[in-house]
Specification:
By secondary structure, the chain is of the alpha/beta class. It has 14 helices and 18 strands. The chain binds iron/sulfur cluster (SF4). Iron/sulfur cluster (SF4) binds near residues 111, 112, 113, 268 and 325.
Length: about 350
């Protein structure tokens, strides 16, 4: 906004284009002026942004599930590096003005975490259904990290941390069955929908209370069972630790945690509010899985490797993704002193 306001150019669209050309990083933005709807996406396409249409009017949303709810027709994604301008005279898709702001050689770098956690499974982002990719993540996770029953007649119980891991758990358990492993998918945790995502609630004590308010267990499903708990990621470990405690209090004989992403080692500088490096559970225990298992009080813990996670990204090539929080490979150079200065304030 500041760059647009300071522009010396006359035309509003030129002012926005000039500003966006100066901005580096991840953004998907919508601007509403007196007479225009303007949408733009960064040249790497980190975040999703979609265009829809209803009753001759155009709509912009970050996820297509918003369109479905309102019976809006999905038209297309706003392309990486594209700015689109819709005004009151725009009646058809062909009349939408589109500008490509950047060099076409800039590589696509979608945030892989959108598929892992952020987006809803009923959305279609980056050209693929989130649900389809999460099921595939579950399948790959089961192939590499299955959990076997203790006795031949027993079934392992596969449950998910709702809601983001629900479809991963379905994919995981389906694959266990295909592998001939006796198992059952159950709803073992119930999530309250009146409290937001805990990893963005500030303050450790508040977060712990938040987990208790947010989840409850279904005792009949968990009692005396070997439980596989599927989660999409572990950030600080607060939620996982509390959940394992709840599941064990409900009578589970053992809890085996399976994570449908690799270890998060690095902060995100592209808009996701991850904690500082020191607060990430993997860094607190220097990547020592046994120590993390002890801390979380799980009987086993397995993450996906980077390659395993990318194997699940069907319809995409691995190089299309930002994986910086797992790999440290930042597609856009970052000033790491920034993190320090923010957290020291
Ligand atoms: S660092 Fe992680 S969360 Fe941030 S944009 Fe990259 S993949 Fe997404």
């Amino acid at each position: 906004m500041h760059l647009i306001a300071r522009s010396k150019l006359e035309n509003q669209i030129d002012q926005i284009i000039e500003a966006l050309r100066k901005v580096k990083g991840a953004y998907s933005i919508v601007i509403l002026t007196n007479d225009k709807l303007i949408a733009a996406r960064d040249p790497n396409g980190f975040r999703p942004l979609s265009l829809g249409k209803i009753n001759g009017s155009f709509v912009i949303a970050s996820e297509t599930c918003a369109f479905d709810i309102n019976k809006i027709e999905f038209i297309r994604d706003v392309e990486p590096g594209e700015i689109i301008v819709i005004d009151k005279n725009t009646k058809t898709v062909n009349e939408i003005r589109s500008f490509k702001l950047f060099d076409e050689s800039i590589p696509i770098k979608h945030c892989v975490f959108e598929y892992i956690y952020f987006s809803r499974p009923d959305s279609k982002i980056f050209g693929s259904n989130v649900d389809k990719i999460r099921r595939k993540l579950g399948k790959v996770l089961a192939n590499h990290h299955p959990v076997l029953p203790d006795k031949p007649e027993e079934k392992v119980i596969v449950i998910s941390v709702p809601d983001s891991s629900n479809t991963v758990a379905i994919g995981y358990q389906n694959q266990l069955i295909k592998m001939g492993i006796n198992s059952k998918h159950e709803i073992g945790l119930i999530r309250s929908h009146y409290i937001g995502r805990t990893f963005i609630i500030p303050g450790q004590a508040k977060r712990e209370v938040g987990v208790r308010i947010k989840f409850n267990t279904v005792k009949g499903v968990l009692e005396d069972k070997k439980v596989v708990l599927i989660d999409d990621s572990i950030v600080r470990g607060t939620t996982s630790k509390q959940l394992v405690k709840l599941i064990k209090e409900a009578g589970a004989r053992s809890v085996h945690l399976r994570i449908s992403s690799p270890q998060i080692i690095h902060p995100c500088y592209y808009g996701m509010d991850f904690p500082s490096k020191e607060e990430l559970i993997v860094n607190r225990f220097n990547g020592n899985i046994n120590e993390i298992e002890n801390y979380l009080d799980v009987d086993s813990l397995e993450y996906m490797t980077l390659d395993q996670m990318l194997e699940a990204m069907i319809d995409h090539v691995p190089s299309e993704f930002c994986t910086a929080c797992f790999s440290g490979d930042y597609p856009i150079p970052v000033n790491t002193n920034f993190e320090k200065s923010v957290y020291e304030e």
